[in-house]
Amino acid sequence: MRTGWEVQPICAKLGPTKIVGGIQALPFKLSCFWRVSGMLLVLFGLCVGPVHGTDSLDLLAPVQTKQAYIGGGAYLQSQPYIDADAKVLPTPVVFFDNRLFYVRWARVGMYIYGQQDWGISITAQPNPYGYQASDSPALAGMADRNSSWEGGFSVGGENDLGFAELTWFHDLLDNSNGTKVRLELGKFIKSGRWTVSPSVLAIWLSGDFNNYYYGVRTDEATPSRPAYTAGAGLDWAAQTYLMYDINERWHILGNLRADYLASTITNSPIVDQDWIVSGLISIMYSFPIKNHE
Predict the structure, then answer these.
(1) Is residue 156 within 8 Å of 126, Cβ to Cβ?
(2) What is the pTM of this model?
(3) β-pair type (250-260, 275-288)
C-alpha cells in the first residue's frame, strides 16, 4: 500500500493517462532510459510544433558559419489506401544544429558522442502514418489508426563524398509498438544561390508497424475486405531538398520524395498504391548561431 509520502519514480509503469495537447501521455513499456530520454525529446519537439515530414536534412552542412532556419510552409502526402485523399497540411519548418541539440524539420535530437563531422544522438520525431475510417469507403468499419511519436538512436556523418545516417526508431506512444530502421545516403551540392541535397533511403518496418497501419483485424473483415496480417518489410525511397537563397537571410525550401512500398503493404486489401509521394514548399528566415563547445 502506497503512502501519501511515497514518491513514484519516473520509470514506474504508467497506467491510463489524460490527453494533453492532443497527445496521449506516454504509456512506455520500454527501459528507464527510453522513458526519460523520450519524454525530454518529445517535450522539446512539442515546443517546436508537430510537423509531418520526418526525414533529416542538415541545411547547415555546406555553410562555414552555422545558421539556424525558421519558417513555415505547406506539406502534401499521398495516401496508399483505396480512394483515400492526399493529406495537405500547414507545417512549421525549423533547422538548427549547435552540436549539442538539433532540429531537422520534424525531428529533434541530442548528441551524446561524436566529432565535428560525425555524431551519435538520441532522437525523436512524429510518425505521420495513420487514418480515420471516414477517410475512405474502403476503410468504413475499421478502427482508426493513430499517428504517433517515435524515438531512438542515430549515427551519422559526412565527408567529401557525401553524408550517411543510420537511425533506429521505436513507437513511443505504444500505438503500433512498431520499430523502424532507416539508412540514408546523400550529398550536398552548392552552386550560387542554390543548394541541392539528393538522397536515397532504405527503410525497414517491423511487422507490428506494418500490421497496425495496413493490416485488417478479424473483427474488421467483410466479404470484400478479408482479414490480413502484414509482416515486416523493406521500403525504398528517393528524395531531394532544393533551397534557393533569396538573399542572405530569406530562403525558399522545397522537398520532393517518393517511397516504394514493400509487398507486405501493397498486398493488403485496403491498399491500392505502390508508392507514397510527398512534398514541401516553404519560406524560411536564417540567422547565425554559435556551436556548443
Answers:
(1) no
(2) 0.78
(3) antiparallel
